[in-house]
């Protein structure tokens, strides 16, 4: 960093700790939702609920920077916005340690609002350290991006491992401490932002000059300190309203379906606003704004696919990737460190590459870098399409409600996951830091905060799309629905038939638990079920007994205690659920044999859980393959359009 402004080091460390807190929480969020908070729900309801919350949270995290950038440009200034955002996020992380659904939404709301103030403004301050045509700008943003990923690398290893293996609240609490550290560094070193360094390259070497400025200070301090209501200044009105907004954000995360509509309208309004702004601007500024809009669309596609890492990739890793390393099984949350590890490994080579190409006047323009990034992303998904050719039966430990459960699963080698992360990371290095730099170069100084917010808004919309994509990886028809339909159709004349609502409220969870108890009994009695040994060969009494044991812990025990007939109905219903699992697994095995993923001799050794797991694996890899093809087509399109886009940039 010696050739860059000193303030870059301070911003690097501030962002590093903020990202430590952000990614520490993120590494745990999907696992916490599916394994702890919503553990009484079952697939696909549990996964879809968790994915919906995660997508709404991710979307709002990147939507609020538009508002935060506007408030900083107009009132607060970037310094105050960064500090206030850090405070809000610290509160959010500590509230996450309260393990109830209500406080989950409140905690996520604090994180969303805090990020809205923090994220666009610290990035804008980095841009303000450099003059417009300083060739170090892209390198500075890449170094800053290393700070992001240094925190993101350590966070899953520390917060994720401790939270997953010991207690969720410890992981969330450590994330909060990280945010406090970032806030302390920023507040103690703000004086570094009072000087802007200008470095000019000459034949004799570099000439360095310093300019006295107040980077990130409020644009109109008098307006900020003006008392406008009950003697309260504009600044504190902003703070108070932000705390009131917590309830609204919490509700949008809770009602993530409503969030989808709100985000769509909000994003559309912002795009229209920027389009109108472009039409009213001089030619050069207008065409540069059009370039931003075009690249926003391609950026949204990139991030919609890339952000599968926090949702469907996490669930895929947990259930269908061989995480065994010798005698140790790697916790799922640790894999959130792979992407930042590769960034730390490759960021410096990429920075040196861009500088070397720039000196030779051969550096690819921004649109070409975007196209390369999307192409590498496509390869990262396409490689997973070949993973089923190497599938095998593996013992995986899945964290359960009370204790971990060891299952036999259809898993693919870890190398495919690592290769996918590597290719996606290389794509990210071509697009993300370059995109931030592009916004600061193409935007007018008076609107850079708002345009930076719009850039993050495109990522917000991408999270919304990412949630829709992730839901495609879940099972279309749940075993619980199969059991309900069987109960309804078979016992329509029985006095024991219940309504759909009663089934959902009273019987679904007990029956689902009984289903897995029944499967466990089947596996215990029959060892590993193969193609030639159907579940009908096993004793129905074993399953009835296991169901009774499961139901004895539920509130409906009184219904079955004296009723052999009702017990038989429940047993038959669960037995039908096991049959469904078996049938789905058999179909997956036949598909695997036809496509030469496995041979018939090998498949005969697969247990019932492996067979069912195989169907889930195909659901994941089919979605990932299609994403790869779409990204490949997008990269080619952008490459074709790049000459026209470069012309519209007018040398920026």
What does this structure look like?
The chain is mostly helical. Among the domains are: 1-257, MFS general substrate transporter like domains (Growth Hormone, Chain: A, Up-down Bundle); 479-620, no CATH class. Helices cover 71% and strands 6% of the residues. It contains 22 helices and eight strands. The chain has helices at residues 7-37, 45-76, 78-95, 101-128, 137-165, 168-188, 221-224, 234-254, 256-279, 283-306, 312-320, 338-359, 366-382, 414-442, 448-471, 479-490, 500-526, 540-551, 557-561, 564-594, 600-603, 608-648, and strands at 195-202, 205-212, 227-229, 232-233, 324-325, 328-329, 392-398, 405-411. It has a two-stranded antiparallel ribbon. Strand 5 (324-325) and strand 6 form a beta hairpin. Helix 13 packs antiparallel against helix 14 and helix 14 packs antiparallel against helix 15. The two termini are 24 Å apart.
- CATH level-1 class of the domain at 1-257: Mainly Alpha
What is the annotated CATH architecture of the domain at 1-257? Up-down Bundle
Share of helix, binned: over 70%
Q: From the helix content, strand content and strand pairing, which structural class follows? A: mainly alpha
Give me the Rg, rounded. 27 Å
Q: Report the average pLDDT across residues.
A: 79
Distance between the termini: 24 Å
């Amino acid at each position: 960093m010696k050739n860059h402004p000193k303030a870059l080091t301070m911003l690097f460390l501030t962002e590093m700790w903020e990202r430590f807190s952000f990614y520490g929480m993120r590494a745990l969020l999907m696992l916490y939702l599916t394994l702890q908070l919503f553990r009484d729900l079952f697939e696909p309801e549990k996964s879809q609920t968790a994915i919906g919350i995660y997508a709404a949270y991710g979307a709002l995290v990147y939507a609020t920077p538009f508002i935060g950038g506007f408030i900083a440009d107009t009132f607060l200034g970037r310094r105050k916005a960064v500090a206030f955002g850090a405070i809000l996020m610290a509160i959010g992380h500590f509230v996450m340690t309260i393990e109830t659904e209500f406080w989950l939404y409140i905690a996520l709301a604090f994180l969303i609002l805090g990020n809205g103030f923090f994220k666009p403004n610290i990035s804008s301050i980095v841009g303000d350290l450099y003059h417009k045509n300083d060739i170090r700008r892209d390198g500075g943003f890449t170094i800053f991006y290393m700070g992001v990923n240094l925190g993101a690398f350590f966070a899953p290893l520390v917060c994720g491992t401790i939270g997953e293996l010991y207690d969720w609240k410890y992981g969330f609490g450590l994330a909060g401490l990280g945010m406090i550290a970032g806030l302390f560094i920023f507040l103690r070193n703000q004086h570094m932002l009072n000087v802007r360094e200008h470095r000019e390259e000459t034949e004799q070497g570099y000439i360095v000059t310093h300019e006295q400025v107040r980077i990130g200070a409020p644009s109109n301090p008098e307006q900020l300190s003006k008392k406008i209501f009950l003697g309260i200044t504009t600044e504190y009105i902003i703070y108070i309203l932000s705390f009131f907004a917590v309830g609204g954000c919490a509700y949008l995360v809770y009602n993530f379906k409503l969030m989808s509509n709100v985000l769509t309208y909000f994003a559309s309004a912002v795009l229209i606003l920027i389009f109108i702004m472009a039409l009213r601007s001089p030619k050069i500024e207008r065409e540069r704004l059009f370039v931003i809009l075009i690249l926003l669309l391609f950026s949204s596609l990139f991030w919609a696919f890339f952000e599968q890492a926090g949702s469907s990739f996490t669930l895929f890793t947990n259930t269908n990737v061989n995480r065994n390393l010798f005698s140790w099984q790697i916790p799922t949350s640790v894999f959130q460190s792979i992407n930042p590890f590769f960034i730390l490994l490759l960021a410096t080579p990429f920075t040196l590459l861009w500088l070397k190409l720039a000196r030779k006047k051969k550096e690819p323009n921004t649109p070409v870098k975007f196209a390369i990034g999307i192409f590498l992303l496509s390869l990262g998904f396409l490689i997973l399409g070949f993973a089923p050719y190497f599938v095998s039966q593996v013992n995986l430990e899945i964290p359960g409600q009370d204790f971990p459960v060891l299952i036999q699963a259809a898993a693919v080698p870890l190398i495919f996951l690592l290769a996918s992360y590597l290719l996606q990371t290389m794509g990210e290095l071509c697009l993300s830091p370059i995109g931030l730099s592009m916004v600061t170069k193409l935007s007018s100084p008076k609107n850079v905060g708002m345009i930076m917010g719009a850039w993050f808004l495109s990522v917000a919309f991408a999270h919304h799309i990412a949630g829709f994509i992730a839901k495609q990886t879940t099972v279309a028809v749940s075993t619980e629905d199969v059991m309900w339909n069987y109960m309804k159709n078979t016992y329509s004349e029985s006095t024991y038939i219940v309504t759909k609502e009663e089934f959902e409220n009273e019987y679904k969870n007990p029956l689902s638990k009984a289903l897995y108890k029944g499967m466990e009994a089947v596996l215990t009695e029959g060892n590993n079920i193969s193609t030639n040994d159907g579940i009908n060969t096993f004793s129905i009494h074993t399953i009835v007994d296991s169901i009774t044991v499961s139901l004895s812990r539920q509130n409906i025990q009184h219904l079955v205690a004296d009723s052999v007939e009702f017990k038989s109905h429940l047993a038959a219903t669960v037995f039908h659920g096991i049959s469904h699992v078996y049938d789905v697994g058999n179909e997956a095995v036949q598909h695997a044999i036809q496509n030469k993923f496995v041979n018939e001799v090998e498949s005969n050794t697969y247990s019932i859980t492996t067979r069912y797991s195989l169907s889930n694996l195909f659901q994941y890899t089919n979605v990932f393959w299609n994403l790869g093809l779409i990204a490949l087509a997008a990269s080619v399109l952008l490459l074709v359009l790049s000459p026209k886009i470069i012309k519209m940039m007018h040398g920026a």
